[in-house]
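hey can u check if this looks right to u? its 265 residues, i copy pasted from the old doc so theres a chance i mangled smth
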Amino acid sequence: MLRSRSVRRAISLVISWVCVVCSGCEEHRAPPLSSLAPAPLQPLGAAPADAGKDPHRLAPAPVWGAPLPAGAVRVTFERGHARAAAASVSMVVDAGVAPLLAAIGKAPALLVPDDTTYVAELAPLLAALEDAHVATWILHGSGAVAFPVTLRDEREFDAWLDEPKPGKLRIIQRQDGLELVSAIGKIPGPDPNGPTVPLRGGRLDVGTTREGLQKMQLRFHAPDACLVPSFGTELRAVATVLSAFWGGPGEPLFETVCLVYPRPR
């Protein structure tokens, strides 16, 4: 009996040794969590390919967008006031927005940028347009195309970011350029400490921004994206960047584009 038990133990030791030596018996270990993380976004080029050696020269960037909405009421701005048809109201007084909404009615509102109107000044008007469910468009500076936008205040934007959906692509519009950000981080630019797409000769680089959005969309296939301007940004500069959300004439890169604004308290 003791001899039989010793034989079985010896056989068991031999099998265990064979399992250690032979890879077929070795347990497969789970890959580290770091290997499951998505690959980082590749940086954009330091300058457009056709910009030559001049770092201040912008590559050609066609202005693409949607045709102007039929029947839209144009909202113009001058010296802190907004005008639609015969209505004229102050943009810094919430109560004054009601006459403007009455002038717009059920028609789309087409915001016509000027050089002196900033996003912060527009906050009461944008909040009123969103609350009244008025379709809001922004006219490009060329006057040839316009851009439909979904208005979101900061709280709604935070809720959008928290949605369990891929992508969450957005452009952060800074005074020194544009940051392109996704759910897995920011696309690095030529300067790791600067924006993804810096100003070039003091002007917005729409061509490189469009290229970055196209690369991000090819990866994420996101249904929507957002533009988040600093609140000291001119409305005209916002309209310039919105053209980057279009990949060609009549070819928006996203189903909807949201514009984030500061809702007045």
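The chain has a mean pLDDT of 84.
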